[in-house]
Design brief:
This protein is α+β, with helices and mostly antiparallel strands. The protein has one domain. Helices cover about 20% and strands about 30% of the residues. The chain contains 3 helices and 7 strands; from the N terminus they run βαβαβββββα. The protein has helices spanning about 25-30, 40, 105-115, and strands at about 1-10, 35, 50-55, 65-70, 75-80, 85-90, 90-95. A 7-stranded antiparallel beta sheet has the order 4-3-2-1-7-6-5. The radius of gyration is 14 Å and the shape is globular. It starts with a strand and ends with a helix.
C-alpha cells in the first residue's frame, strides 16, 4: 500500500520532543511516497532499522533505487484510521495513506506496478 510522509518530528531532546524538524533533509522527505506493508511493519523488532522503497518524490515524479532507511526503531503505531507512526532513535515519522488527486487506491497500486516494471 502507498503511504506519504506527512510529518517528521524530533523524538528526543528535552526542548525538541514532538517539535517539527525543519532541517533540509527532513523537509525534502515530506511528501515523498513509499510502499509500506503494515503487517510486515508490525513484525520489525525494536532496535532494528528498516528499508522501505520510495515510489514517488514529493513533486509526484517516480523514484527508483532510493530507500527510506531511518535510525533504529523504537516504536511503531498503526492507528485505526490507517495513519502510521514510526518512532526511531532520532525522529517520529507520520505516514498517511496516499491518494493521488482523482485516483483510488487501486489506480495508485497499478501506477506503482508500472513504475517497477520500467
Amino acid at each position: 500500500m502507498l503511504y506519504q510522509i506527512t510529518s517528521i518530528r524530533y523524538s528526543r531532546g528535552v526542548d525538541n520532543i514532538g517539535r517539527e524538524k525543519e532541517d533540509p533533509d527532513s523537509r525534502a522527505r515530506i511528501g515523498r511516497v513509499l510502499e509500506i506493508d503494515p503487517d510486515e511493519l508490525t513484525r520489525v523488532p525494536t532496535g532494528m532499522s528498516i528499508e522501505l522503497p520510495y515510489v514517488m518524490d514529493s513533486n509526484g515524479e517516480p523514484v527508483r533505487d532510493k530507500v527510506f532507511c531511518p535510525s533504529s526503531i523504537r516504536n511503531i503505531h498503526i492507528k485505526a484510521n490507517g495513519v502510521i507512526l514510526i518512532e526511531t532513535l532520532n525522529s517520529i515519522y507520520e505516514f498517511h495513506v496516499y491518494e493521488p488527486a482523482g485516483q483510488s487506491h487501486a489506480a495508485a497500486a497499478v501506477h506503482t506496478e508500472r513504475n517497477r516494471e520500467n
